[in-house]
Fold:
Amino acid sequence: MNEEKEVEEQPKPLILQKLEEHHADALLSQDEIRGTIVVVLRKEQAYAVLEYLKTDPELAYTFLVDVTAVDNSQMESELMQFDYARFMVVYQLYSYQGQCRVRVKVPVHENDLNIPSVTGLWRGANWLERETYDMFGINFDGHPDLRRILMPDDFEGHPLQKDYPLRGRGERESFNFDKQNV
Amino acid sequence: MGLAKTDTQSAQDVGQTDGNIITTTIDRVINWGRKNSLWPMPFGTACCAIEMMATLASKFDLSRFGSEAIRFSPRQSDLLIVSGRISIKMMPVLKRIYDQMPDPKWVISMGACASCGGVFDTYTLIQGVDQFIPVDVYIPGCPPRPEDLIDAVLQVQQKIASGASPKGVEHLLET
Structure:
């Protein structure tokens, strides 16, 4: 990385250079927001690119910090940008080697909420993806155990979707003691 | 153990005559013992529990009032302190812990969240644990000061000393 910086005054970050070189077709957008590189990937190639980010010896984004999602259904500006995909699945990665972070976003359309699970790359993704499934309803294909993690097992709906009412649909008044295994 | 009110004419727990004879009732002696050795079961789920820890630590020292024997087993305790938010997933656990405590038992609902949901008027939060378990003393505050918790314990002690029944058995006495 240091060599790259010496060659050019303000070089393009290595990760963007390499992504443009190897996975240009997967890149929907690239940006830098408050010092963090943000790349938006096509869902079809997302797993391959994430695997590349992790395994490439120069990048080595070996640490998956977080997996979450954003419901953009009330953010017209965001919706327009990525073909009206309602959800944006967000991966935060960190490279111990380069001591740098990257935020990877993947648009997910409401009519196809499936996205490949990254538990095969980072085992720590297991509970993070369960939480994202629980809160947003994103289905992670290939996840070993995609159950709810925060809400009770018999809960219906995904409460962080924007159309879910803040005070719920009567769950807090009507929940059943007997149905839950204590 | 009898919980009925006794001997309303004397405000003293113990009456003493000239001949060094002490007269009292079994209920009064038992309640006197109970009130001075409350064994709390802490159910701390949020920041109120931090205040509860402060209450037990040296600066505020709940043991001055005979309630420092914190038990993490409900089967050994007679005072449940609910301190913090209770979600719909946690409520069955709390109910089960309450059910496991031996009678007579008292409940303190500490802080705004346990008492009414506090600022968390959301899909997952119980809007007051008294919907599901009987509460004897409520403490307002977000979170309450340790002095407030001490005051609540003293109020429980007063209830016990007065011979009043815990909220949890009042419905049994009515029938």
In short: Residues 2-126 of chain A form a domain with the Beta Polymerase; domain 2 fold (CATH 3.30.460.80). The interface with chain B takes residues 150-152, 159, 164-169, 171-172, 175, 177, 180, 182 of chain A (CB under 8 Å). Helices of chain A lie at 2-7, 14-22, 43-55, 76-81, 125-136, 171-174.
